[in-house]
Specification:
2 domains, alpha/beta, 5-stranded mixed beta sheet, globular, Peroxisomal Thiolase, Chain A, domain 1, binds oxa(dethia)-CoA, single chain
Length: 334
């Protein structure tokens, strides 16, 4: 019989220590988009809740925006970057097959002792990464984990596609997680329905494009109504399960920070969950658009900066999107 392998000592829990975010400076209003897709400011506001979104410049990348957001989160946590043991970047718009954006980000923030990897779960990516980070910390594998959601969707949207061109924006949000004597990150409720991979997907694969180059390189396509209906019927169940798994009720929540997909989806989730009046609802989509994996940390940071939520309250997070992947958990606001 082989000798027993020494296990790593686990920890009781993890917590989010800090948040940071970054938005590119260029504001793109609805009129600019409408001119490209035969739409209008009124239609876009009414159907999605979006007034404007940000667009990264040519020299801004997923890694550079992630670095900006992460640098703020690290400074706010007061942790030396050399103490970070893992950097996870949730993204689907890093334009290199390899290496991972996280390796560049770890280097740029000075996380010289960190493992680094990207996580691809589209708009559920940030909550997936929080679930992984919490598990790493509780298992004793990592002490401090930097989780970043960063997207440059402007590189992967067709500006003539009426179903997507007005929705997506660029940006990044980051959190630093560390150990806690009492769990401050609730159990993650997550999953994916690969039977619906066609509902949000790329127009073609890179290899198909290589063999039959079209007018436009691979870009995002979405059956909006199908996703909308799925989000309203299924995501509310996922959020309720996350509340139950955390051992709380919705009355204990201070904030609801869903993925910023569409204001009408947020409104429907709030109604279905029957959230009490005092729960602050993140409505960052109005000015940031849908930034996929970045939308939840961006919205949380903006709520903190505006003083709409305070440290110590509980926030319900839920991400959902291509895959169709979803993940939700309750966390304590840092
Ligand atoms: O982040 C990942 C997850 N993504 C989501 O959760 C997105 C979910 N889906 C949505 O947010 C919505 O489906 C959209 C905002 C994408 C679209 O809104 P909708 O209310 O579902 O619009 P629709 O596709 O049902 O189209 C309604 C009408 C149609 O006209 P008719 O047939 O009623 O005359 C469309 O042709 O609006 C028309 N339309 C537009 N009109 C102006 C569709 N796109 C546009 C447009 N501008 N961009």
């Amino acid at each position: 019989m082989s000798p027993a392998i020494t296990p790593v000592a686990g920890r009781p829990g993890s917590r989010i220590l800090s948040v940071g975010s970054y938005l590119p400076s260029r504001v793109v209003g609805n009129d600019e988009i409408s001119a490209l897709i035969d739409s209008s400011d009124q239609w876009i506001r009414e159907r999605s809740g979006i007034s404007e979104r940000r667009r990264a410049s040519a020299d801004e990348t997923v890694a550079s925006m992630a670095t900006e957001a992460a640098t703020k989160a690290i400074a706010r946590a007061g942790i030396d970057p050399s103490e970070i043991s893992m950097v996870l970047v949730a993204t689907v718009t890093h334009p290199f097959q390899t290496p991972a954006a996280a390796t560049e980000v770890a280097f740029r923030v000075g996380a010289v002792n960190a493992a680094a990897s990207d996580l691809g779960a589209a708009c559920a990516g940030f909550c997936y990464a929080i679930g992984v980070a919490d598990s790493l910390i509780r298992a004793g594998t990592s002490k401090y984990v930097l989780v970043i959601g960063a997207e440059k969707f402007s590189d992967f949207v067709s500006w003539s596609d009426r179903g997507t061109a007005f929705i997506f924006g660029d940006g990044a949000g980051a959190v630093l997680l560390g150990p806690s004597d009492i769990p401050r990150v609730g159990p993650v409720i997550w999953g994916a329905d690969g039977g619906q991979i066609d509902v949000i997907t790329m127009s073609q694969s890179w290899t198909d494009y290589r063999d039959n180059p079209g007018e436009h390189y691979p870009h995002l396509t979405m059956q909006g109504q199908t996703v909308f209906r799925w989000a309203i019927s299924e995501v509310s169940k996922v959020t309720q399960r996350a509340i139950d798994a955390a051992g709380i009720t919705s009355a204990d929540l201070a904030a609801f920070v869903p993925h910023q997909a569409n204001m009408r989806i947020t409104d429907a989730l709030v109604r279905t969950l029957k959230l009490p009046e005092h729960v602050v609802i993140a409505r960052d989509i109005k000015t940031s658009g849908n930034t996929s994996a970045a939308s939840i940390p961006l919205a949380l940071d903006h709520l903190l900066e505006a003083g709409e939520v305070t440290s110590g309250g509980l926030a319900l997070l839920v991400g959902f999107g291509a895959g169709l992947a979803f993940a939700a958990q309750v966390v304590e606001i840092p």
